[in-house]
Amino acid sequence: xxxxxRDSNSRKNxxxxxxxxxxxxxxxxxxxxxxxxxxxxxxxxxxxxxHAQLYTEMVTTGAILHGKGDYLAFSPEEQPLVxxxxxxxxxxxxxxxxxxxxxxxxxxxxxxxxPSDRVQNGMFGACLMAEPALVAECVAAMKAEVAIPVTxxxxxxxxxxxxxxxxxxxxxxxxxxxxxxxxxxxxxxWLKGLSPRxxxxxxxxxxxxxxxxxxxxxxxxxxxxGGIKSLDEARGxxxxxxxxxxxxxxxxxxxxxxxxxxxxxxxxxxxPGRHQVxxxxxxxxxxxxxxxxxxxxxxRHTLGIFQGLPGARxxxxxxxxxxxxxxxxxxxxxxALAKVPEAVLDYS
Length: 348
Hints:
By secondary structure, this protein is an alpha/beta fold. The protein contains 16 helices and nine strands. The protein folds into two domains: 258 residues, Aldolase class I (TIM Barrel, Alpha-Beta Barrel); 64 residues, Four Helix Bundle (Hemerythrin (Met), subunit A), CATH 1.20.120.1460. Helix content is 41%, strand content 11%. The radius of gyration is 20 Å and the shape is globular. Belongs to the dus family.
């Protein structure tokens, strides 16, 4: 179902909220993760941080232009929100960029980092690192059509093409094309021989290379991604770079987001406790159930919110065993919530 596009006033208010405290929303972001950061996940995450920048899953140009579903749907509450695009046809990317801007997305991001075989077969993702001129053409084509920022997410190298000079060649072309910012996953990708999961774990992290990139190109806004597991680590990276992006750590321990606004944006607004976050999610669940969404499609993103607390296992088990059943509703969530002692509160 198509969501209502926000009006100009809501766009202005959202922009002001995203930059409160003098920081851009890109200072902290949640990584785009295929099959994970769908619109239900993003709504849930936004309940814990109003400044963290959220990303869609990667959406291909083919899906947007020729698919049967609405691949651009989102709830306004998710913003600031970035649409990550997968593709290598400048014209198709430009067309998708226009559609995304019309729908109210805050930013566009081109995926030049995903190493999966499926992505490579479509000629996009990490394999595009070997085609810097084409990547630059894609960015320039989008920027020519929209006013919102156009950014790129990449790796530090691919296969045997992993020299610093190789990375700089891409970066210089992106700067010439007008790229607004760059997010760098501080690992290279092996296009053959490793699964996407192994590509997130086996190639060694090289944070220093990303720091060096910022020193050599100080005018380019650069954020770092890869292996970051805490806000203390994030603060360390922010001594060298403009932004940090966390992925799986946030997904597996989502209440980490409750610390972000105060820790990284100087925003001391009152943050709801874990139980209240779930209660705040219930109206959304009821709305989505009314649209035909299965309960489990939403609750699967909430399983880690009580991580490390008494009752966390019972919470996960009850949802895992019952949320998928036909007719499952908010009473399943309420019953699961009752299994976690509310007297035990942990805001750390």
